[in-house]
Amino acid sequence: MQIILVTQRHGKSLYLPSWLGRLMPYLLLAAGAGLYYLGYVGGTPDPSRTIGDRALQQWDQEIQSQREALAQLSLQSEEELAALTVRLSELQARSTRLDALGERLIEVSGLEDSEFDFSLPPGMGGPEVPAPGVVDPRYLRPPTFAEELERLEIHLNSRRQQLTVLDALLNNRSLDDQTFVAGRPVGSGAWMSSRYGYRTDPFTGQNTWHAGLDFAGPEGMDVVSVASGVVVFSGDNGGYGNMVDINHGGGYITRYAHNKENFVEVGEIVEKGQVIAALGNTGRSTAPHVHFEVHQNGRTRDPIDYISRTRN
């Protein structure tokens, strides 16, 4: 095969072997295909590399999202812990109030401190055995802090209700004690000068009925109510002089007569032992004393039975 090279001045001939001439078309074709392949590979991005970059970007986004979720969860946990701390403080305050109520009940009821000491935690215990037939998954794990608080609140509510009922019962018992008619209307400085029943009238000398007890003493000494009640009369009542009547409920009324001065008014609530009048000599009286009567269901009773009276 002959190849002629032409220049500006003259031409030259180049002779190639015959076998190389026969391969030349194939060589040119292979060179073109190689150039095309190199151009295609160089201009086309690597798919595997593109997929790797996208995966890294997605991972970065997911990690950032998890970080934000973790920060939100941490903030929420702090808020819940603060709320639980406040709730626990409230429950502790309620427990303190219940303990104070318990101490008051002990004082009112007269129980021994050793029998019901609110300063000590209640004793609890028992063997750890699974409840039969329990399938609730909550029993298969320790209780959460919130569940324990809820359980404590339920316990405190139940205890508060029980103590409130007990307090009401004890108050009623205390009220019964206060309205229980018993005791003397005057202190130890007075003495009994006339008994209940028939006696010789100090003005006429005749045998007459005396519906109460007379306690003589110095004028002006305190006259007290023998039980709690409501004043139903306070004022002058003829031969009784200045008189006070007190209704104690249960059909009982006590009367205090011949007073120098009354210290209570109609409708006033008086307590057991409260001073209601000053011992005097008003009305049909021979000397300073208090005339004391006890009425039950409209009939007079012998006050001597109530002076040393005690509850069974």
Characterization of this structure:
Helix content is 41%, strand content 24%. With 312 residues, it is α+β, with helices and mostly antiparallel strands. The protein has three domains: 2-43; 68-112 and 143-179; 191-307, Glucose Permease (Domain IIA). Strands 3, 6, 7, 8, 9, 10, 11, 12, 13 and 14 form a ten-stranded antiparallel β-sheet that branches. Strands 1-2 form a two-stranded antiparallel ribbon. The chain has a two-stranded antiparallel ribbon with strand order 4-5. The radius of gyration is 55 Å and the shape is rod-shaped.
Which structural category fits the helices and strands?
A: alpha+beta
Molecular shape: rod-shaped
Number of alpha- plus pi-helical segments? 4
CATH superfamily of the largest domain: Glucose Permease (Domain IIA)
Quick structural summary:
It contains 4 helices and 14 strands. The protein has 312 residues and is an alpha+beta fold.
List keywords for this structure.
single chain, about 40% helix, ten-stranded antiparallel beta sheet, about 300 residues, 4 helices, Glucose Permease (Domain IIA), 3 domains, alpha+beta, rod-shaped
